[in-house]
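=== Per-residue structure ===
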Amino acid sequence: MSEQPTATTLNPEFEAVLRECLAGLVGPDEPLQESTDLTAFGIDSLTVVRLLVTLEETFGVTIPDEVITFEIFSSPGVLWNVLSGLMEEPDER
């Protein structure tokens, strides 16, 4: 029987981007799950911009300005839901 990922398991590439952008705020052994409160790490606007740019480049999406609020950075799960939704949308260009 194959092991199913749990609801709290993050996409490994997404988690790597989070850890890279939150370096100095999140320890390498600090667990990151879908429900982890990212605001507790003290992310600031510079961290948010770095995270947005890195996510867009890594996953090949453009995050529209209208969805960029501090709420989408409240947890990895919320941010991943926005990001994965954008990856599923057909390219309208």
